[in-house]
């Protein structure tokens, strides 16, 4: 009896770790790596040759120019590469950010993604005997029909051309919409 309860508790714990636990572990490891990098950056233990400069235009009135860079914390992801801010400076109408690639955090991110794919059986095996066609058919059945009109979102900027002009409505697009009937509305019943 105790063995059954212990085994059940073990499998429930393993299942919950598979659902949520590894995410917490990888998040903790990424935070620890980021903190270690930040300590190195605070102590200036980096090479200026490794820094990458980002220029951000600023449109602020009465902005003062900075004579030197200031230490700055933060991070950004560009083109799949994570960068950690090292220092910043404002000159004329431009913000200059000096960044360093956070390679250890990127390595942990790819390891997390690979673990997720393997644990949820998302890898594609060429040796698999199951046909992929059955998976796509079942996905199409669950997906349902796509209604392009219910997902359409059109915005109009009233300040674009003229305040008093309204955008032209294309009558053909109104007729082709399934939500608008081209027929005459019913007559009102006499009161």
Q: How would you characterize this protein structure?
A:
Residues 170-191 are annotated as: Disordered. The protein has four helices and five strands. The protein has 191 residues and is an alpha+beta fold. It has a domain at 2-119. Strands 1, 2, 3, 4 and 5 form a five-stranded antiparallel β-sheet that branches. Helix 1 packs antiparallel against helix 2. The chain is flat.
> What is the count of helical runs?
4
Query: Could you spell the SSE succession in H and E letters?
Result: HEEEEEHHH
Give the proportion of residues in helices: 25-40%
Low-confidence stretches: 138-144, 146-151
Global structural class: alpha+beta
Q: If you compute it from the alpha carbons, what radius of gyration comes out, rounded to the nearest whole angstrom? A: 29 Å
Number of strands: 5
Could you give the distance between the termini? 79 Å
Shape: flat
Biggest beta-sheet profile: 5 strands, antiparallel
Strand fraction equals 15-25%
Overall mean pLDDT score? 76
Region (Disordered): 170-191
Short description:
The protein has 191 residues and is α+β, with helices and mostly antiparallel strands. The chain has 4 helices and 5 strands.
Task: Give the tags.
single chain, 4 helices, 191 residues, alpha+beta, five-stranded antiparallel β-sheet
Topology:
Elements lengths: L1 H41 L9 E6 L12 E2 L3 E4 L2 E11 L2 E8 L1 H17 L12 H12 L27 H6 L15
Antiparallel strand pairs: 1-5, 2-4, 3-4, 4-5
Helix pairs in contact: 1-2
